[in-house]
């Protein structure tokens, strides 16, 4: 089955926040993306609210519930107490836990599962009590012992960090090497019972090779590249382009 597409709204929110004005509308563009066929919406609320505001989450939750009940809400973040409370208040279908420092500009590495096993186990258990699917951010090249710990702490999925792969946009040789690292990690994870998500700097150009190398890919979460393309093609057509890139057939 082709990978589902979750549209990350953070870049849209960051543009909105340049002015004390309600546009571009996070929910408005989320509505366009879902109407065009996206399977869900992703946000990464950070403590300083520099892009997604905490107040955006109930509005996105209501948009999905009222107009697109078959779609999913994915919330990413570091599992601090305030983040977990935000999740409990907004009931996403999926939570993606990342090991970010609050000062980071963007997510740039996965978890060391062994080092943070106890912390992750507690956080995952709390989320599972809500009936939430849990995905853990994972570096390419992560080995089997580490991935086994990810499964042991209760994760349903890992999200492959595709930043290094996306950074090779001008070097086919390096891109092929990074793609193979991602593929080998997925090859190890799937037999352990972990499903595979992926995200960070994915584009219409580099998504098809990823989907071919990781045919078990369940979902991709895409924000920066998709938002950049939307400036040129419009949100609806951009979503359709990314859906096709992920292998989805459009009617």
Description:
With 251 residues, this protein is of the alpha/beta class. The model has no long low-confidence stretch (mean pLDDT 96). An 8-stranded parallel beta barrel has the order 1-2-3-4-5-6-7-8, surrounded by 6 helices. The two termini are 16 Å apart. It has one domain: TIM Barrel, CATH 3.20.20.70. 44% of the residues lie in helices and 16% in strands.
Helix-residue proportion = 40-55%
Q: Name the average pLDDT.
A: 96
Give me the secondary-structure category: alpha/beta
The CATH superfamily title: Aldolase class I
Tell the overall outline.
Answer: globular
Short description:
The chain is an alpha/beta fold and 251 residues long. Helices cover 44% and strands 16% of the residues.
List the helices and strands and how they pair.
Elements: E1 4-8, H1 10-16, H2 26-35, E2 40-43, H3 56-67, E3 72-77, H4 81-90, E4 94-97, H5 117-128, E5 133-138, H6 144-152, E6 157-161, H7 163-166, H8 172-189, E7 195-199, H9 207-213, E8 217-222, H10 224-233, H11 235-245
Parallel strand pairs: 1-2, 1-8, 2-3, 3-4, 4-5, 5-6, 6-7, 7-8
Can you tag this structure with a few keywords?
11 helices, alpha/beta, 251 residues, eight-stranded parallel β-barrel, TIM Barrel, 16% strand
